[in-house]
Design brief:
The chain is an alpha/beta fold. The chain has three domains: 359 residues, Alkaline Phosphatase, subunit A; 56 residues, no CATH class; 63 residues, 2-Layer Sandwich (Arylsulfatase, C-terminal domain). It is built from twelve helices and 18 strands. The strands form four sheets. The protein has a ten-stranded mixed β-sheet, sandwiched between helices. It has a four-stranded antiparallel β-sheet with strand order 15-16-17-18, with helices on one face. Helix 2 packs across helix 7 and helix 6 packs parallel to helix 7. The structure holds 2-acetamido-2-deoxy-6-O-sulfo-beta-D-galactopyranose and calcium ion.
Length: 510
């Protein structure tokens, strides 16, 4: 009996000796915004959009002011976040509604890395990385795959593409929810492809502008009209499964809360990808009029609410201290991205009178190679380990794979996450080193080396996405990228042009 008790105490002691301190396996949540600009959050300067929850997150964590997504559009940024590889190496650009899965199922991904460390992994929200096999039309009425579950997530609840693209239904793991087999769902590139007998047909916005009762489109967005909103791409059927745009944030928050509650007793990784503030901006009526900036500002208030709800859930389960919460965005701000929702008028008229600029002092936004395209809100909170503050270090989402590998002590092979470099010590606020150099994608590819920025010119560039001539900026004296100083610094430009070519051609940066 005594022996038994002693051995029990011995086992307990041994157990506590080998068990890892709580901070070794923190939970990780990435809260990812869509088209949220650097200056759309209060902590970075926004005065006309109240974001108390995001500001509180920043106040309790590290706010990076030179933090970047890898590209100035969604799919390549998300690809890099989840793989540690630049989108251009896999030809990833903005994906159409019925694109196949863009992430190969046999490479290392962020969720697979967490699984190697014993985590459970989940994704809630916007996917836009393609679903299904290349060359095989996806059967939306059966098992919709390969998708997130085939690249390392244990569970997924998705808006499959974007909220301005079909299909306008939620996907729960492999299944569209709420589908009536009598009204099968089809997705196609043109009307003909989806005109199937027996399936609900939606108005074609090109022929029937009046069907677009919620918004008129300014460009594109006039194919299938769903909930009075024209969308990119064609769908038919699935009427009983249609989402409600105005309750989408509520739905995603509910799913995230359930995920946290279900997994609170084991280390988890949750990738929470909000549809806010991408077009069509259709916040719940309770957020309407919360800003003077129209739907775009109100959608940002909704996103701040979602962020607060997730933080509250962590508090309620006692998980705040040992959960790393990362808040960021997939590209910079845009105003008119295809709908007449009043944003341009309201934002620009405010701009004249000390108004709101989603990029702040940084030039440009979504689609553009200038800083505003990729320099986005970038907050990391981990109360157990990170001292609150601000960091000016240059950091990038593409480096999460290598940084978490270091944190979790997992070795990467030469083939894994080839563009991901660990900046863990900077993410933890232990130093201010960040990256010595980094690539920025917006169709064209630019190079930052410290404060120097080299952009290869593109004579065919339109809409100011990239300069027509080779350009060199120095952000230290010229943060808003106004003065091309290539004439005064020909050698610097030549060496950066050479380095850029080599990095693009290389088998990865790491
Ligand atoms: C563009 C769409 C834009 C938006 C974007 C993707 C047109 C004319 N424009 O092609 O509205 O959907 O793709 O945005 O169709 S992203 O944030 O997902 O990259
Ligand atoms: Ca986006």
């Amino acid at each position: 009996m005594i022996f038994k008790t002693l051995s029990c105490i011995g086992a307990l002691l041994a157990c506590s000796l080998v068990s890892l301190p709580a901070t070794d396996k923190p939970n990780v949540i990435i809260i990812y915004g869509d088209d949220v600009g650097f200056n759309d959050v209060g902590v970075n300067g926004s005065k006309l959009i109240p974001t108390p929850n995001i500001d509180a997150l920043a106040a309790a964590g590290l706010n990076f002011t030179d933090g970047h997504c890898s590209a100035a559009t969604c799919s390549p940024s998300r690809f890099s976040l989840l793989t540690g590889i630049h989108g251009f190496r896999h030809g990833v650009n903005i994906l159409p509604p019925n694109a196949p899965l863009s992430i190969p199922t046999d490479i290392l991904t962020l969720p697979k890395l967490f699984k190697k460390a014993g985590y459970t992994t989940g994704v809630v929200g916007k996917w836009h990385l393609g679903i299904g096999k290349k060359g095989v039309p996806t059967d939306w009425n059966g098992e919709v795959k390969p998708g997130p579950l085939e690249i390392g997530f244990d569970s997924s609840f998705l808006l499959p593409s974007t909220n301005d693209r079909v299909p306008c239904v939620y996907l729960d793991d492999h299944r569209v929810i709420g589908l009536d087999p009598k009204d099968p769902l089809f997705v196609g590139r043109n009307l003909k492809e989806v005109q199937k007998p027996g399936s609900t047909q939606y108005p074609d916005g090109k022929k029937d502008r009046k069907a677009m009762t919620y918004y008129q489109s300014t460009h594109g967005h006039n194919n299938s009209v769903i909930n009075g909103i024209g969308r990119i791409g064609y769908m038919s059927g699935g009427k009983s499964a249609l989402w409600n745009d105005e309750t989408m944030a509520d739905e995603f928050v509910k799913q995230a809360k359930n995920y946290i509650a279900d997994n609170k007793d084991k280390p988890f990784f949750l990738y929470f990808a909000s549809q806010d503030i991408h077009v069509p901006r259709a916040p719940h009526p309770r957020f309407k009029g919360k800003t003077e900036l129209g739907h775009r500002g109100d959608a940002m208030v909704q996103f701040d609410w979602s962020t607060g709800e997730i933080m509250k859930a962590l508090d309620e389960h006692g998980l705040t201290d040992n959960t790393i919460v990362i808040f960021s965005s997939d590209n910079g701000p845009v105003y008119d991205d295809g709908y007449k929702d009043g944003t341009v008028v309201q934002t620009s008229s405010k701009e004249v009178d000390n108004g709101h600029d989603g990029s702040g002092i940084w030039r440009g936004g979504k689609y553009q190679i200038y800083e505003g395209g990729t320099r986005v809100p970038f907050i990391i909170r981990w109360p157990a380990k990170i001292k609150p503050g601000t960091s000016k270090a240059m950091v990038n989402q593409i480096d999460f794979v290598a940084s978490f590998a270091e944190l979790l002590d997992i070795e990467l092979t030469d083939q894994d996450a080839i563009d991901s470099r660990s900046t863990l010590s900077t993410f933890l606020g232990e130093d201010n080193k960040g990256l010595p150099y980094m690539l920025q994608e917006a169709r064209t590819i630019a190079l930052r080396v410290g404060d120097w920025k080299y952009i290869p010119g593109n004579p065919k560039s339109n809409r100011g996405r990239t300069p027509k001539e080779d350009t060199l900026f120095n952000l230290e004296n010229d943060p808003s990228e106004q003065k091309n100083i290539i004439g005064e610094n020909p050698e610097k430009a030549a060496s950066m042009a050479k380095q850029l070519k080599e990095l693009i051609k290389a088998d990865g940066i790491r």
